[in-house]
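Supplementary notes for students who missed Thursday's class. We covered one full example, reproduced here. Read the sequence, then the structure, then the short commentary at the end.
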Amino acid sequence: MLAIANTLVGVALSPITAAHKVVVLGSEPFDQRRVIQSLAAIKGKRWTDDSGRAAEAKLLELPDVESAQVERNLFGRGLVRLTYRHPVARVAGAKGIALDATGIPFPSKRPLDGLPIVRFEGQLTGTSGSLWTTWNARAVAELCVGLSRIEKFGPFEVLVQETGVLWLNKLSGGQVKLGAHQSLDAKLAALETILGDQPDLLAPGKTLNVSNPAGAVVGTGQGGTP
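Structure (token representation):
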């Protein structure tokens, strides 16, 4: 038993176990320089060092990176697997801040032009802030993705009120009250049908309430405002 343990230790401490070549899977072009710098921590290091975990932690410092896994074998070959957050919307009034597919805001280095805009009533706070308790982050992200089905009637901006009530504000046009985050797919489907039949319903000053998708109500006046 002792001989086996000594053999394992000897292999672990041998320079042969150092990482001499690393293959990176999933690295984005805008991030390649930082990835190379982060992996310097494992170059020539022994297998028993914590350098692999240190490299993972370094890679995860960029908010765009969702997960990082660093592996090495006993022959000096390393493998890094990266996955990135993909922005589905941009936050109004916060340069470079995007929402990912789960609705979590993060600073992104990707171009955000052309993505749906989300405006938060009041100040957007961190995960422990009060605003986070009043709206469903994933539902907001899914709403932004679903806007493509009514894009021809827009453009629309998503407004999240402090109460959690959701609105669509048509730029240079009227407003749509979606209400709570439940049944958003049904509400978008109802909105798509209604606007397909009566596209002028969202003229400036008009408000369309589809919080009950089975009974939409047309009104006037300002509802949700930034």
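Commentary. The chain has two domains: 16-84, 89-215. Helices lie at 2-13, 32-39, 51-59, 137-146, 184-197. If anything here is unclear, bring it to office hours.
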